[in-house]
Amino acid sequence: MWIVKIGGSLAKDPLLVDWLEQLGDLGGGRVVIVPGGAVYADAARHAQAEWHLDDVVAHNMAVLGMGQFAFLLQGLCPDLVLAAEERDLERAVRSGRVALWMPLGLLRREADELTNWDVTSDSLSLWLANRLNAERVILVKSCPVPFAMPTRGQWEELAGDGVVDGRFPSLAAEAAYPIHLFERTELMRMRDLLLDETMV
Questions:
Q1: Is the pLDDT at 122 greater than 90, yes or no?
Q2: Of 3.30.830.10, 3.40.1160.10, 3.30.2000.10, 3.40.50.2300, which CATH number belongs to 2-195?
């Protein structure tokens, strides 16, 4: 099983449909898509700054933002199987479909290690990958990415530059699977990887 995180920064990008179509055509039986937070998570950040909301409130708003982007993705590609529970994600993949994560299980009543802005949908992709025993994780970004498969030190650099969140490097260091970074324009590279998983 592969986790493919579609960055929320692609929410207004014409290539978004191409990514979804390619994953839908070639990723059936293998791929679980994680939605980014898009402008919906940005709204949570702004609301927290404006109203001095606590981190649990902001976290829950951002999770619901990921859910809104998930609905947008399914609206663009109705064949994606929207699922909140891990067993339903696994069932969709086993049936040969592409699953789309609705992360409602991440809503919280009290603070924990996930309820701060060091954790975004990037780190949540690794969190889900660990829960599903994923074979690889792929992050699709709209910003330039200098490393295709970063090392631990390079993840630190990328976090410092804002390409991934602050928690990501420590989670990546513990990952037992390869983690790939893709720029929004690298559809052909993604196609090659889907067609032959030995290619990076």
A1: yes
A2: 3.40.1160.10
Q: CA nearest 42: which of 6, 68, 72?
A: 68
pLDDT for 196 = 83
Residue 199 reports pLDDT greater than 60: no
In this prediction, residue 200 carries a pLDDT of: 47
Range 7-13 average pLDDT: 95
- Domains of the chain, by residue range, sit at 2-195
